[in-house]
Specification:
mainly beta; 4-stranded antiparallel sheet; 5% helix; disordered N terminus
Length: 417
């Protein structure tokens, strides 16, 4: 029997003593109307039904959670970087789905054994491989790849260990990770696959010229996390634990290079890449203690171990400030950017809300269990917090903890819409 008390009772019993002293001062705004996480109440918190569609990563694969119930997409499913689209393979059919509505974008037959890996920004194309995603793939001489676009499937046979990463915005190219050495991979370079010719090409520099031979960066991918900017034009990938790494600009200039953590900026429209270095001590702590979030203007990276939050402007591609972010040290980190210049950082069983312009802490409170991902609703009025086997949500209308819902096997909350 499940003896876990309801969310309201858990807050009231377990958190009331610790939170009561800060209750009167707790009000954090995010989204159109803001986010307010309430302190303890004298009465149990009422459970408000779920009104958004959530995508959760679980032990059963991806699950689409709606007010009406759950739709298990299974292990042969992938979510787009912005959380807006799903690609699912069932019974030799690939289906592309709008995640918030469940509407079918396209469907096409595929041979048995293909697994969806990457969806195009417009949701009309998908790249599939015969091997699942892995932190470090196994060695192989060649890589079979299927690309489905506008209802047509094309198979490619590429030399070496090739892993799809992102489509270009026009769907004429596919950015891939070219792992080396092919027999026993331990590092990779990011390259562009021309889908018309089937050839691999180097990326462009920020000045839009091809990277010269010998100057392509070698990456080891530890702690990779990727987010898409809200414009859909840039893919931002966080790398940690990269001591001695040499960027293309270091290789071209002869500098030694020694970046422990950086954000790899990939322009999906123009095909150039740039590495935005993060200052010490980012990259020193556990990879899972780092998290990244972005919108149309800023990218932010948090490190729970050092309790630091870095902001960078997407136009200048440079860190412009680092502020303190009180967090549970070393815990799995989550990060979200809201409207009204608020940042929500989470680690362990605590959420902290900071003003994006000043870095000032505007609110901090406990949540019932260690966080496993956060997401702000598309209208900005609700914050969803994932926890092992559960998702909890909070209202911005009146500051209440609205309720919770069990999601069997939940390991990470991916999106809300």
């Amino acid at each position: 029997m499940n003896r876990t008390p309801p969310i309201g009772n858990r807050f009231r019993i377990e958190r009331c003593h610790r939170d009561m002293t800060t209750r009167r001062n707790f009000l954090a705004l995010t989204g159109a109307a803001g986010l307010a996480l309430a302190g303890c109440r004298d009465q149990a918190v009422a459970s408000t039904p779920l009104t958004d569609v959530l995508i959760a990563e679980t032990s059963r694969g991806l699950v689409r959670v709606t007010p009406e119930g759950e739709q298990v997409q299974g292990p042969a499913a992938v979510l787009s970087h912005d959380g807006a689209r799903l690609a699912v393979v069932r019974e030799k059919h690939l289906t592309l789905i709008e995640a918030p509505t469940g509407a079918e974008i396209a469907a096409v037959g595929v041979a048995a054994g293909w697994l969806p890996r990457v969806i195009s920004p417009d949701g009309r194309a998908c790249a599939l491989t015969r091997t699942p995603a892995a932190v470090i793939p196994s060695g192989r001489a060649r890589t079979p790849l299927t690309v489905v676009s506008d209802g047509r499937a094309r198979e490619l046979d590429l030399p070496g260990v090739i892993e799809p990463d992102a489509f270009t915005t026009d769907r004429n190219g596919l950015f891939v990770l070219d792992w080396l050495p092919a027999a026993k991979p331990d590092h990779y370079r990011v390259r562009r696959l021309d889908l018309a010719s089937g050839t691999l090409e180097p990326l462009l520099t920020r000045n839009k010229v091809p990277v010269p031979s010998g100057a392509e960066e070698a990456m080891r991918g530890e702690g990779r996390q990727a987010v898409l900017t809200r414009s859909g034009q840039m893919l931002l990938t966080l790398y940690t634990h990269q001591p001695g790494h040499q960027h293309t600009r270091d290789l071209l200039s002869g500098r030694p290079g020694n970046a422990h953590a950086f954000v790899h900026v990939l322009n999906l429209a123009e095909g150039w890449a740039y590495c935005l270095d993060l200052p010490h001590p980012f990259g020193e702590g556990p990879p899972e203690g780092h998290a990244i979030a972005a919108d149309t203007r800023d990218v932010a990276v948090v490190d729970s171990t050092s309790g630091r939050l870095a902001f960078a402007n997407l136009d200048s591609l440079a860190v412009d400030r680092v502020v303190a972010a009180p967090m549970t040290s070393g815990a799995v980190a989550s990060l979200a950017l809201g409207a009204d210049r608020r940042v929500i950082a989470g680690a362990g069983d605590r959420i902290t809300v900071l003003n994006r312009d000043t870095g000032a802490v505007e609110a901090s409170r406990s949540v019932p269990a260690p966080l496993r991902g956060m997401a702000v609703s598309r209208d900005g009025t609700r914050l969803y917090a994932g926890a092992p086997g559960w998702v909890h949500w909070f209202s911005s209308a009146n500051g209440d903890s609205l309720g919770s819902r069990g999601i069997a096997g939940l390991t990470a909350l991916r999106s809300a819409g």
